[in-house]
RNA sequence: GUGGGUGUAGCUCAGGCGGUAGAGCACUGGGUUGUGGUCCCAGGAGUCGCGGGUUCGAAUCCCGUCACUCACCCCA
């Protein structure tokens, strides 16, 4: 056992898996860029109050899952548990919403939640997220959802599905909430759940326990209590999704754990990951900008969990980003040859070719074995005999045939042979 | 915070009715003094998570502890 271990609940990606991680991040980011979203790089920690107000005082995230500590100056700092609050803070602080709207941004990076780790749930998690701010158009909700779907498809995933609902808005949610609470208070629930009835009654609908599910089976649903305006918004989101060819299922019991969501909310679900089946989620948050001291601007966005997406790729057997790491593997025999090959490797790399060299005085057999494992298509073998005639052996590792190439012509030859 | 499971070689795991440690993969070398992938041979590598107890003797039995892991809860 080693002396040090990584902090609890933090996934680490090393080769070859890390190449997949990069591909997942890049593919999802590319889907956002393709729709006009620009990258925003933000702090990993913020003023604690930003999350308390932005995410919601009553949420589990704020009440028990934040990494909060005082810095040397006595300020209360919190490692970001989610992305939207920070984006909105930056937008307000720098007046990014003064230009043309919607403002479209995407981010990528680590988030932190102090939770008990389990499969797919980590204390440090990686997300790619987008935010579209300033335009309350159902077509924009649909675009955001379609971006995620496009990203997953590009990765090669087919087993994900989209769950959709509307949480209503200020004009109908308070009334519905009261009605739901009234219903729930009449049920014989345990103490913990009763507390939740008062804090966030919506979440009780999402309880996984069979006995609770049964009790709330005929609870009133938000979907049946939407205001005219919210219902119309929701209908149009669905229409646009159909037009986009993005399949979805409606789940009127879908609940998000963060307080800021209004109207459209959605979750990307993948079965087969264990208990943590949500690989991404998001929705509209029309009141958040104003709550954080900005203009009265609407917003819609999502966060996609990269770690869980990695798990989804694993169970589906798709391996984005997998490729050989090397085109040509150089095998020197002796010091003279090594000197020549090291320099040649530099020239080849300069020409954009991926090249490795057998270092450490490996024997020929060992070096050839390393060439094989590197995935290179060709090996360059250089020994005394070749040096004497200013040439090098170029071996096709798949077919096994080998030819002698003048050293001065190797770069050009390599280019030709690799492009073929 | 509450439960269950598991800790033996770098990785995946056998062994477990007590007698000082094994396999496969990986790695290194050799069979082939200038040629890899298959095959054969050899080698390095482990305080059996840690501490205590029982015993002539503990990886094995008992107690404690730590870690990892899955699930509840919650969420990406």
TrEMBL record:
GO terms (BP aspect): histidyl-tRNA aminoacylation
Binding site for L-histidine: 82-84, 113, 127, 131, 256, 260-261
Gene3D superfamilies found in the cross-reference section: Anticodon-binding domain, Bira Bifunctional Protein, Domain 2
Coiled coil: none
GO MF annotation, one: histidine-tRNA ligase activity
Gene Ontology annotations for the cellular component aspect, listed alphabetically: cytoplasm
Key words, A-Z: Aminoacyl-tRNA synthetase, ATP-binding, Cytoplasm, Ligase, Nucleotide-binding, Protein biosynthesis
Domain Aminoacyl-transfer RNA synthetases class-II family profile: 23-312
Localization in the cell: Cytoplasm
InterPro entries, alphabetized: aa-tRNA-synth_II, aa-tRNA-synth_II/BPL/LPL, Anticodon-bd, Anticodon-bd_dom_sf, His-tRNA-ligase, HisRS-like_core, HisRS/HisZ, HisRS_anticodon
CDD domains for this protein: HisRS-like_core (cd00773), HisRS_anticodon (cd00859)
Listed EC numbers: 6.1.1.21
Entry keyword RNA-binding: no
Catalytic activity: tRNA(His) + L-histidine + ATP = L-histidyl-tRNA(His) + AMP + diphosphate + H(+)
Pfam families on file: HGTP_anticodon (PF03129), tRNA-synt_His (PF13393)
Class of this enzyme: ligase
Family (UniProt): Belongs to the class-II aminoacyl-tRNA synthetase family.
Protein name: Histidine--tRNA ligase
